[in-house]
Amino acid sequence: MSNSKNYRPNVAAIIVSSAYPKEKKVFVAERNDISGMWQFPQGGIDAGETPTQALFRELEEEIGTDQIEVISEHPEWISYDFPKHVAKKMQPFHGQTQRYFLVRLKDESLVNLETEHPEFIDHKYVDVEQVLDMVARFKRPVYAQVMEYFKKEGLL
To answer: How many domains does the chain have?
Structure first.
């Protein structure tokens, strides 16, 4: 990460269902502003919040539940730059630096995308191998790195 760029601190969740570890499919949600674009739930870390606190808050805001258990946390912050068209909307940030968590829903029936400020219109569980074909191109290297780490750890 270059010191000349301003990165937004962010958390992201790779969610597995309550059937984990028997089933290792992961949760993806379709954005409400870009049809056909799927992603993991994620969001900014507010001033004074720890990454874990932000994780629980963001999941409540985005998928209507914070009823999760944290299975693992990626050991490093991972940064990426926004494409120019996204950077214009996200000023003063050039990109995001993210902390990824692998979490299990305590009860997957609690997912409710009709939140106060909905960000997603649909969700589903998919095989890990499908995820990279579903997400924005600029996020693929980060997603690949994180999922590979959790695979090497025997968690995905």
So the answer is: 1
Structure tokens at 100: 């990824």
Q: Which helix H or strand E contains 81, and what residues bound it?
A: strand 78-81
11 falls within a domain: yes
Assigned domain for 30 exists: yes
CA 68 to chain centre: 14
Q: Which amino acid is at 133?
A: D
For residue 4 the two structure tokens come to 């000349």
Work out whether strand 7-16 and strand 95-105 pair parallel, antiparallel, or are unpaired: parallel
Terminal-residue alpha carbon distance, the chain? 27
CATH code of 88's domain: 3.90.79.10
Residue 106 has which token pair? Answer: 């305590």
Rounded distance between C-alpha atoms, residue 133 and residue 38, angstroms: 9
Global pTM?
0.92
Pairing of strands 68-73, 42-44: unpaired
- Per-residue model confidence as pLDDT tens digits over 50-80: 999 999 999 999 999 999 999 999 999 999 9
Q: Report d(CA 62, CA 75) in Å as an integer.
A: 24
